[in-house]
Amino acid sequence: MKKKTDLRVLKTRKLLYEALLNLMEKNEFESITIQQLADEAMINRATFYLHYVDKYELLNASITDKLDELMLKHISPIRHVHDGVVYLDIFRDIATEICQTVNDNERFFRIMLNSNSDRIIKDYFIQLIKKNIEPQFKQMFGKEPKQFERHKDIFIQLIVSSIIGVMTWWISSDDREPPEVIASTIINFVTKGPAYVMGLEMGES
């Protein structure tokens, strides 16, 4: 019985996820109602509230699931930095994998990062990325932990904002560059800009 219940839960949440994307392709997030979500998912309002407190929790869960797919699969545990040295070949591979994942989930990221969406969408991305990455940054500054503590907020904001900006442009572009090209651009920016300023050394593994 538990397995059947779990399958029903997963099915309903998938229907709500698809309903959210469908509605956000046509409407601003703030204008979407619970009734619209329920109608689009072909469930009733009571069923919606069995799964989520409100539409913001649905949005948060949808974004978290996709970001976890990126973070947990490619970045955790952090592999490309050790004792203050960034290993560029590993970093390059990870960045390419992440860009490929974004490309494979083009519809989701195009909708969530679209410049016409409400600011809350981008705020969610910024906060969730910071939450996932910041605890790992301490591993990146084995030689200069105080350097990290002094500049971590600037470093994180710069990296997150820049990557989100590049991804927003890239995923909405009609003539989209291949994932490896975008990954290389991001690596050049990070390693020749913020990471260099923070005192990280570059090398090959």
Characteristics:
2 domains, membrane, repressor, Arc Repressor Mutant, subunit A, 205 residues, three-stranded mixed sheet, mainly alpha, TetR_C_Firmicutes, 10 helices, single chain
Structural overview:
The chain is elongated. It folds into two domains: 50 residues, Arc Repressor Mutant, subunit A, CATH 1.10.10; 143 residues. Strands 1-2-3 form a three-stranded mixed beta sheet. The N and C termini lie far apart (50 Å). A hairpin with a 2-residue loop joins β1 and β2. The chain has ten helices and three strands, in the order ααααββααααααβ. With 205 residues, it is mainly alpha-helical.
In short:
This protein is mostly helical and 205 residues long. It contains ten helices and three strands; from the N terminus they run ααααββααααααβ. Strands 1-2-3 form a three-stranded mixed beta sheet.
